[in-house]
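Task 17 of the worksheet. Students: predict the tertiary structure of the chain below and write it out as structure tokens. Keep your answer in the requested format; marks are given for formatting as well as content.
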Amino acid sequence: MKGVKLIGDCIVADAADDLNCANFQTQSQAQSVYQKCVDRIKAYNSDKSTEEIARLDVYGLDGDKDGIVCEHLPQ
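Model answer:
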């Protein structure tokens, strides 16, 4: 997303850093990582709307952009 600063472990520098749903055993584990990144990115981008930040999915875990990631994984 143009103009949004990514920070810490929420940066995907190369393919080795990327995560996908197969990296998690449960949906809640994936959701936790997703939410952590959204919260961190939001903290450093206070000028962006909540909607802009929530839709920033650095790992591509939320295919349908509803805020719930890896929905096919068990709870």
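Marker's comment: Helices lie at 27-43, 50-54. The mean pLDDT is 79.
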